[in-house]
Structure formats: structure tokens, C-alpha cells
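Assemble and predict.
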Amino acid sequence: MVRINIDSKEVEANGESTLLELARKNGIEIPTLCHHQAVTPYGACRLCLVEIKKEDETKLVASCTYPVREDGITVLTQSPKVNRVRKMILEFLLARCPEVEIIQEMSAEMGIKQSRFILYDNDDCILCGLCARVCEEIIGKSAVSFTDRGPDRKVSTPFNEPSEECVGCTACAFVCPTGAIKVEEWDEIRFIEKWNTEIPLQKCAKCDMLYTPANTPGYILSKMQLPENLLRLCEKCRRKSVAESLSNYDVTSKNVIIKK
Amino acid sequence: MKKIKSPAELEKLRETLVSQNNTDKPWVTICCGTGCSASGALDVVSSFEKAIKEKNLDIDITTKVTGCHGFCEQGPLVVINPGNIFYCKVKYEDVEEIIKETLLEKKLIDRLLYVDPLSQEKVKTEDEVTFYKKQLRLLLGNNGMIDPTDLYDYLGIGGYGALNKVLQEMTPRQVIEEIKNSGLRGRGGAGFPTGIKWESSYKAEGDLKYVICNADEGDPGCFQDRSILEGNPHSVLEGMIIGAYAVDSGQGYIYVRNEYPLAVKNFSTAIEKARDYGLLGENILGSSFSFDVKICRGGGAFVCGESSALIASIEGKAGEPRDKYIHATEKGLHDKPTVLNNVKTWATVPLIIEKSAEWFSNIGTEKSKGTMIFSLTGKVNNTGLVEVPMGITLKELVFEIGGGIPGGKNIKAVQTGGPSGGCIPEKLLDLPLDYEKLIEAGSMMGSGGMIVMDENTCVVDLARYFLSFTQDESCGKCIPCREGGKQMLSILNNITQGKGQEKDLDLIREIASVMKDGSLCALGTMAPNPVLTTLQYFPDEYLAHIRDKKCPAGVCQALIEYFIDQEACNGCGRCLKVCPSEAITGHKEEPHELDQDKCIKCGACTEVCRHEAILVK
Ligand SMILES: Cc1cc2nc3c(=O)[nH]c(=O)nc-3n(C[C@H](O)[C@H](O)[C@H](O)COP(=O)(O)O)c2cc1C
Ligand code: FES
């Protein structure tokens, strides 16, 4: 059994694999930007750094990747050392994307009024990589990934060409912590500017409303092996059609019987 | 040829090879490492071959094409035995004369002898060259003795004897104990004890285990690993086989940058030959132990030398580091227990097994054992690869082996440990070179880069240069390294342009501490070292840039002006002719004038002036 002391609270691990997970389960909040429970931890933003003490050694580690397996270690999530690093990381980010709300909020929380650093290219993308991980691990597509390295690093489609892989699901925009991935729709088109990609929208087979990117249903169906016509309708029509077919059943009975 | 099926068979083959070696017969070694090849060594080889074929010489000469001898600056190098005669900068045309005069008539050719830069005396033998005299060439020495493509050559100097010993007499545990007792520490940078690393992997559970040789060698100016792979590939391979035996690994990889074609070629040949002879592959030397090695060619990114990035790269993923809270020895390549060591580390292993841990641990200092190879470059007379016992002082290295600073200039500092090492000032030249002492001085051993700087080097510019290298070569994954490095670099750029403020220096220190504490990998934690050490040892130079808007070394373009010394200028007109911006005017044989407004500070005038009449202030 692994017992860990986090901010003077004795907690017991119960299958959690990382320090971050364990802390959050026990109501101890640690700020993160590149973490999402649905995908593999990445350890890039370093906001989740905590100070751990084992034997006589203390060091800073990323709680999102640090494994829970040593009994008796002590963890400080707000030590002066941790706060000093966290604060400057936010100052860096504030200089990178001064208009992003979550960065402003987190900075204000740490008492930062203004960044001492110079603004570079005012890029809202903080390169947390969540979009790329979601696309690869959840959607199974890898339509976008990191390109270049060092100061030139970005996330993009291959060669920044319109993506052939993208199914237009916009899971990337959903997980993006800073709102850097903007999705617009017009003229039967869904447009994701950051990926330089346009996806045609599809009409509902019943009501003709534009309701989904054309290649999403097919992809979902093939992945999940669902009946073919399931996603041909918009959400509203689908609900309606389910309700209609249900009206053929006596749903109040315990043993569903088909009404004659 | 047939597979060798037992240790005894290998011994027998070696005895035959040694007995065939006729040391009285003249033999000529021609260095064909990458350096010497670039300066024409291959022509020298063909000239020898031609002469031997055509001339019907009444003398039987053996020529041997070897790997790098480390003194590339003087190449192509030719050593003639018996006699150990050392000729440098040999050309195609010299060969006929060498055969006639030296080999047949036993006379020296004066013009081909090496001239000692300090005493100005000519040196006859390789052993007497000051560059080599103080070295202890345990790893590099054999480069000059063997043809790297000839397995028999390696066997002839005792090669694969260590493997034989291990298979015959030692259990894996005993091998690990021997390496632990020797005190060998990793030569790739961090200096982690090799035996302990092996032990962790030995103890880790796993049906499959890997060993990897790190030959990424990304430090600019370093070519130690390349030289060993080119000149003595079997020594590395033998080390890997022994390591694999110790940790029970069946598969090894060598990750080598594709910019090292000769290293790749010679190592591939070594693998093939070793397989043919049963030294690699199934049932090595008839034992139950099987192991093979694959070559994995890297794209040459500096960050791919970092262990977790390298492993990702072998797996076909992007070469970026990850947190290593679970060590590779437990979960490395394909999540299997993995031992990763540097080329030099692997090449040292057979020596320790052959000669004993005790022998090895008697070389070096208390905590740093054995030898280290430095790549000595910069403002120093003798440049090249230098292998010395740990604990030698910087002064001995620079002034005895390196032959001092050219042009009678003063030494200012030495950058050790590559671009993320530190800058050690002249006052610390008595520093003994070992892992701990270098870290205490704010630097590190790294992979043995050593750049000597004279008084004309600006340390602020130097720090800026190294930081821009590490920034460009970083992966860009974590924020402290990427954003911190970018901001620190922009502050340094400002300072070198005279736009710095004193409070910037505190901000630099603050960023540095965040990079050190917060970065994901050692690239980010070490990148501030050149900045921090120059700030520590040369604070006045930073202040001169900030307060007085002056670059004392006369390097930072924005802060210097060129003048013509009216007394010294004799109006020869050379500067006037090369000035690209027509800033220099004047009549022949009258002192010239330089118009500051037009001057673009390119320095072309300084280079052509023969009267030291161009002043930089
Ligand atoms: C940015 C970076 C670059 C590195 N490059 C190399 C390299 O080119 N060669 C090398 O052997 N080790 C390199 N290392 C060190 C490796 O991560 C690792 O510690 C080493 O290869 C382990 O072998 P050793 O124990 O034999 O030294 C690098 C480390 C970092 C952080
Ligand atoms: S959440 Fe751990 S590094 Fe970003």
C-alpha cells in the first residue's frame, strides 16, 4: 500500500497512477494546462510541478507524469520553490498570449499583474499538444501534430496543407485550453483556420438542416460498427424518429411487448 | 571463413595471427579518418599503392589505412615503422620521396616533420610530439594501429579477448560487479555509474531487454565518438556484447547520426564480420548466449542525444524527451528494460574486463576513474582529440598538450562540456578535470567539448551564441526551456546591442533558476550554464556592455567603432580596396580616413591591414 503526504494531508493511493490524479481525488487542486484525463499525460506545461521529498532529497517533479509508487514520500503543491516556477511560467505565457482568458485568470490568481517579458508573436497556442493527443488517441486520426522544433515549434497538419485526415469532429477545439482553435461554419462548410482545413457539411436526410461535417458519420460508424442509417439524421430528427418507433412499444411494462 | 565455435578456437586463431605479425617488416600507417580524408589522405593511400605496384620495389612494405589519430589539424598523417617516424601534412606528391628516402635509405624528410609550436623544433617520432606525449590513449591509441575494417587486426591486438574471458570465466553478476568496482562512469555527459545502471536493468523484470549505444554526438566540434566508431568499431561492439551478456539482452541498437557516413560504414562492416565469425548472433562463440545489433541512423538533432528522445526516435516517434521518473533500465525502448550508454563508455568496457577493475580504478581521481577524451579546439596551437587521465589540469591540457595560445595572446577562458557546459576563467586553470570539479565550477564534463578562448573573445557574445544554439536545437516541448530560453536570449541580444539595463542581469538569473528547476530534460536545465558562468566570472564585462555601452573585447558590432591610426597607416590602400561600403578614403602613401557613418563594421579592413593601423574601440 502506498501512503503519501500531500500538503500535510495523509492520503492513500487506490489505483491512481500519478500524483496529480491522487491529489485531485483527495480534493487538492494543482493547476494544469497540458493535462486532460482522457489522454496520456505529456508533461509539457510544467505548471503542475510539485516539490517532493524522499529520504533527504527534495526535487521538483511534474505531478501529471510522476508515478504513485513510493510509500512515505512528502509532496508540497504550493511550496515557495513551486510557486516561483509556476509564477514565471505564467509570466512567460502572459507574454505569449496576453489575451487568453484562462492565462489571465491563472496569472491573476498568482498575483501577476503584468508580465516582465516581451511579447513575441501573440500566439494563443501554448503548444500543450492536447489537440494532437486527442486526435491521435481518442479519434484515432493524427490529423495534426507538432512540427519543427525549438522556438519554431507549432501544431499543424502535414506541411500546413488542408488535412485529408481531418473528419471535422472538432474534438481538438473542445480540449484546447486557450481557445486557439477556432471553428467557423458558413455556406455548407465547416472551417478550422488553424488547420487550414474546410470540411463540407451534410444535410439531415429528413429536414435538410446542415447538421454534421460530411465525413464524420461515416468515420464514427466504421469505428463503432453501428448500423449505417443511424447518423443520417440531425439530432432533432433522430430523437423524433426514436420517439416514433418507441411509440410502438409499451414502455411502461416490465417485459416490453410489441403492441399489436 | 567459418564461424568460431568456442573460446579456445578464438584463442588459437589469435595466436596464429600474432605469430604471423612480423614487426621488423616496414609498415606505413596512413590516417584516413574523416579529418585526414578531407585533407587528401585517400590520395596519399592511392599514391602508395601505385608506387608499390609499379615500382617493383626491392623492399616489402605493408600499408595500413587507419582511423583517426586525433591530430586532424596536421593531416594527412603518415607514421612509418619501425622507427615511429611521424610525417604530417603529407601530399600525393610526397609519397615517392617517402619511399625512396625514408623507407629505402632510412633518411628523414625534413619538410614533412612536425614543428613544435613552442620550441620551434622539428620532431621526429610520433611519441615525441608534445600533443601526444602527455596523453594516455587507452581508447584512441589503437586507432593508429589497426585497419578498422579488418577483424584480424583487432584480434591481433587482443580484441575480443575480454568477451572470451567473460564467456569462459564470468557470470553476468560478476561482470556487473567488475564494472561497478572499476568506478566507470558514463562518458555521454551525466557521468552516471555504469555498473549501477547495468545492475538496475539486470534486476528489472522482462523477457526482452535492450542495450543501446548512443552515437548521436550532437555537441558542435566534438568528434570523439565518430573517431572511435571509424577507427576501432569492434571495441564498441565488443563492449556492447559484454554489456548485453551482463544484463541478458538479446538485441542491441546503435543510434548514430547520418552525418557520420564513414562511422556507419565501418560499424556496419564490423557487425557483418563479427556475425560471420560467430562473435555476434546466435550462440556466440558456441555458448548459449545470443545477441545481435542493429544500426539506427538519426537525423542529427542535438536533442535526440538525450536518452528518452533517442529511444523515442528509435521507436519511430518524434525525437523529444519525456519525464524519466521511471528509468529506462526499467521501462525503456518499447517499454522494456534498456541500458543506454555512450560510445566511449562501451569502448572502455573490454579494457576493464581485460585488465581488471583495479587497474582501471588506479587511473584518474577519487570519484572519476579512467581517461576522458576531450575535443580541444579554439584559440590553441594544437587542436584535436586529446585522451588524458581524469584529474589532469586545464592548464596542462591547454599549455602542454595544446601548445599554448597562438599569436602570443593571453588566454581568457575555456568553455568545457559543449554548448550547455560552462565557461571557466583563466584564474581557474589549475582546476583538475573530473566530473565533480567541473560541476563545482558551474560547468560539466558533457561529452568532452573544450573550446579555448583568447583575450579577443567577448564572453557576453559567447553566452549568447551558445544559448541560441541550445534554443534552436531544443525540442520546444516544455515551457521553461522554450519560453525561458527565448526570453533570456532576447535579453542577451539587447545587451550585446547596448540596449541592456542593469536589472536585466537579475532577470537573467531568475529565468535561469526557473529553467533549471522546471525544465523537462537536461537540455533546458543545462542551457543557462554558459550564461550563468560568464555572469559569475566576468560580471564587469556585462556591466561594460550595459553601463558604458562598450564591448571590451571589441566583438559586439553595435558597440564598437573602427578607427585608422594616423601614425601607423602608411596609405598602402589595401583597406580602401576591400571596404565594401566605401567608408575609407585617402590618397596613396598618406594616412587614410574612415567615415563612421558609412562604416558597416564588417572588419574586412582589419584583416588586410599589415601595419596594425586599424583600431577597434
Ligand atoms: C540535450 C542532450 C543531448 C545529449 N546528447 C548526447 C550525445 O550526443 N551522446 C551521448 O552519449 N549522450 C548524450 N546525452 C546524454 C544522454 O542523455 C545519456 O545520459 C547518455 O547517453 C548515457 O550514457 P552514459 O551513461 O554512457 O554517459 C545528451 C543529453 C542531453 C540532455
Ligand atoms: S499538466 Fe503536468 S506538465 Fe502540464
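The domain at 23-131 of chain B is CATH 3.40.30.10 (Glutaredoxin).
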